[in-house]
Amino acid sequence: MEKIIYDLLSFLIVFTAIFAINYLWSLRKIKKHKKIDLVDYVTNRFKLDSKKIKATNMILIISLINALIISLAYTVITNLNISFIWQLMIAFILIFALIYSLYELYGRYLIKKGYQRKEQA
Q1: Which residues neighbour 19 within 8 Å (Cβ) at sequence distance 6 or greater?
Q2: pTM for this entry
C-alpha cells in the first residue's frame, strides 16, 4: 500500500512540475510573439485552421499531454527492477508510443470539433 501511495505521489509531483514548466515557458513564448513548434506541428499535421483555435487553449492541452507523457514514463520506469540500459530503452520506446498516440488522439479531437481547414478546390 505504501508503494502505491509513493508511486502516485511521485507521479503527481513530476506531472505538476513538468506541466508548470512547460505551460509557463510556452506562455512566455506567446508574449514574445515567438513560434511554438508543437502548436505548429499539430496544426500542420492535421491541417487545422490556426485562426479558429485559441493558442492559449492549445498550449494548455499540449502542456497537459507532455506532462502526462513524461510523468507516466517516469513512473513506469522507476517501478521496473532491471538494468539501467534496459530502463532507458523501454523509456525511449514508451515515450515515442505515447507521443504518437496522444497527439493523434488530440488532433482527431480537434478535427471533430470543426477546426479543420477548408480545402480549396
Answers
A1: 63, 64, 66, 67
A2: 0.84
